[in-house]
Amino acid sequence: MIWAIAAPPADALFNMNQGKDLVFVNATYSIGFDSNVFTRKAGRESFTQSASASVDYTRQAGLIAIAASASVSVGSFASIRSQDFTDPALSISFRKRYGRTTGSLSINARHDSSPDPDAGERTKSWNYGTALSARYPVNDRYYLTNDFGFSGKYYTNKSLFSDLDSYSDAIFVNYIYSSKLDLNGGYSIRLSNTSRHTNAIDHNFSIGASGGILPKLSGTVRFGYQIRDSSSRIGGNETFKSFSAGTSLKWLYSRKLSIRGDINDDFSTSSTDISTDRLSIGLHTSTPLTKKLIGNFGVTYSSTDFLGIAGDGRHDDMWMFDASVGLALTTHIRTNLSYAYMINMSNRSAYDFERQTLTLTIAASY
């Protein structure tokens, strides 16, 4: 299992064209213990090892800025060798920084090996994504934004899991309320279809704000109302309605303590081809313990409704508690010790489980 840790800013390994072209190299190695590799009631435990390496390139010159990354992660389970994995990833993005219309285009592809609590299994899949964003100013106070995206998830084990393709588009009207705060409102639509011929259309109407919400409190707030029209072989034509949320705020309580809060609520389609409505609420803190030691602590709660006839009335409540301590050995090398405890409580007892992980990581960035 891979646990990522943040490395401090470091000079690029290669600095070319008077600093306009930079190349960074990163590597991590982790050892740990996982008490429930498959996130299921009858869990199997294992000691774990993982390693990753990445090369990142950035170019800040001219009208278009470019960022590209190539990485690979490998992992092994001492007691369950069938779940060993190799996960490569590639990404590239272009950003137009100047002119009346600005925006970005990003393309990515990666292989992912991870546990899926909804299914009580580990999944292996190829994931592809494209995102196109544009911003167009109307006048000094108003501007329009449009975000188009595609994502595809294709599983190795197609007898257990259903592939998923999703297309989305969102248009928002934004109002510059002050030099620190923008208000917005708009509409988004998402079309998704699975390899088991389940189709869904999501309509979402929302309002929000971004920037400096209050003194020392900044981030993004968004709440709305959403409707999902679904068509499947099991449930036929079904309609689901719910509130939506996409909020992430950071509170700088003091120079040494920052607190981040997240609230998200959205429809999705599970790996087992069931529509879900998942609400998640998270609270995390970060504080320096010494000049080189940083502590992070957090708690996350999620509530998941499995919808329609296929969902069979299933409801899950999950709590996750995590803590980590990071130590800067040098400007380029850090270590991190992390612990996480997860408990899932379902009205279908077969999906109840507990999981604990303990991981020690060393990371280098040049």
Descriptive tags:
366 residues, mainly beta, Maltoporin, Chain A, 1% helix, 71% strand, disordered N terminus
What's a concise summary of this model?
This protein is mainly beta. 1% of the residues lie in helices and 71% in strands. The protein contains one helix and 19 strands.
Would you kindly provide a written description of the structure presented here, covering whatever features stand out?
With 366 residues, this protein is an all-beta fold. It has one domain: Maltoporin, Chain A (Beta Barrel). The protein has one helix at 308-311; strands at 14-16, 21-34, 46-59, 64-77, 85-96, 102-116, 121-137, 142-155, 164-176, 181-194, 199-214, 217-232, 236-252, 258-269, 275-288, 293-306, 315-328, 333-346, 353-365. It has an 18-stranded antiparallel beta barrel. The longest helix has 4 residues, at 308-311. Mean pLDDT is 94; it is low at 1-10.
Q: What count of helical segments does DSSP give?
A: 1
> Overall 3D geometry?
globular
- Regions with little confidence, pLDDT below 50 for 5+ residues: 1-10
Could you tell me the mean pLDDT?
94
Distance between the termini: 23 Å
CATH topology name: Maltoporin, Chain A
Total of domains: 1
Q: By helix and strand content, what is the structural category?
A: mainly beta
Radius of gyration from the alpha-carbon trace, in angstroms: 22 Å
Q: What proportion strand? A: over 45%
